[in-house]
Amino acid sequence: MARIVVQKFGGSSVSDVEKIRKVAQRVKARRDEGWELVVVVSAMGDTTDELLSLAKQISADPPRRELDMLLTCGERISMALLSMALQDLGVAAISFTGSQSGIITDDTHSQARIVEVKPGRIEEALGQGKVVIVAGYQGVSRNKEVTTLGRGGSDTSAVALAAALHADCEIYSDVDGIYSADPRIVPSAKKLDSISPEEMQELATAGAKVLNAQAVEFAREQGIVIHAKSTHSAGTGTRIEAKPGELGRVRGVTCEADVWGFCVAGAPDALLELLDSHQVKPRSLSFDASGRTLVLVPLQDVHAPEVLRAKLPPGVTVLDELGTVTCVGTGLHADGLVLRKALSVAHAMNAPVTAMASSALQLTIVTSRSLVKSLTKGLHEALVG
Ligand code: ADP
Ligand code: ASP
Ligand code: MG
């Protein structure tokens, strides 16, 4: 029986007709090697941002159900075009939406979680010798409502399908795998041949958009090895797999410029309830000795932050000029060396350290948003080399 591979191509890989044709050729070449293929696609280029901007021109707080109906259109365009491109090359293909693919989610519109995959229709099409193209980033709830999985969610679609089909999982992007920092911010960043799922999950959660955090979590839970590769070159990519790394070494540095800090004098319960009722997920929560709480919230999936601000309970202030820089590695807390080096880099750059958090796997500095990129470069130079 032929092996199945799930390949995912992101927005930049399908941003115009020429690129879609190139992806089709790549898929055909793999098919000619005898593989069965399921190909997950994202929306073309900046389509999702453009659809979001349309929604926000209509409403400051668009109903999430309708937002999902709108945003899922982006991936439907790509899936149909790629299927046409394959058929044009003489390859039998069929495209499916998330719902047709059997991706069942909870009903948290705009940030749904996959709860089950029923790949019957995909298996049937594979059995008929077709390449199956799946619209990423979307599913359907048990109430038959169309949902989206949060920004960057096509990665999660790919991992979930790979798990359900016992298939290999390859995520293609505009970079040749996972680097020790975003190569757009740190040009000297090095490609990693492999990284542990735990380290990758920390990087993704702290802002490395090269892989979606939920996708990495899913892969870790299901024991799926993700292979991150380049769409455009024949590089070796990065395998996200459990391999003992060097303890105490920083493997990667990443940053997140789009976060809000909620500073609470006293108990944070009312704030946490408000965030929960708006389906806003905090990234971290820390207390200081004077009884204040700092709740960090990435804004990527918060579609009406100003509406949230207007509803804040008394005693909560928004710190909206913050960003975070995170160093990731295994056993970072073994001695205080990484911590001391990181602080001395921040001090030398006059970067304020508004808050810090550390664990065995990561060290995060909360600083001014405007300094996030330069602190990333500084920490990369000092700790990765
Ligand atoms: P896609 O559209 O294929 O999903 P993304 O734009 O979501 O691709 O992710 C790829 C981008 O992630 C790269 O262009 C790069 O700028 C960024 N990136 C951030 N951190 C890293 C990292 N550690 N290694 C590689 N790329 C990274
Ligand atoms: N198109 C969606 C986004 O831009 C999902 C994805 O690209 O994975 O976030
Ligand atoms: Mg992505």
Task: Describe what you observe in this structure.
A hairpin with a 4-residue loop joins strand 15 and strand 16. Strands 3-6-2-1-9-11-12-10 form an 8-stranded mixed β-sheet, sandwiched between helices. It folds into 2 domains: 4-173, Carbamate kinase, CATH 3.40.1160.10; 249-383, VC0802-like. The model has no long low-confidence stretch (mean pLDDT 96). It has helices spanning 17-32, 47-58, 64-88, 120-127, 154-165, 197-205, 213-222, 269-277, 305-310, 337-348, 372-383; strands at residues 4-9, 36-41, 93-96, 103-105, 114-117, 131-135, 138-141, 146-148, 168-173, 194-195, 226-230, 238-240, 250-256, 259-265, 284-287, 292-298, 316-319, 322-329, 355-358, 362-368. It is globular and about 65 Å long. The protein contains 11 helices and 20 strands. With 385 residues, it is an alpha/beta fold.
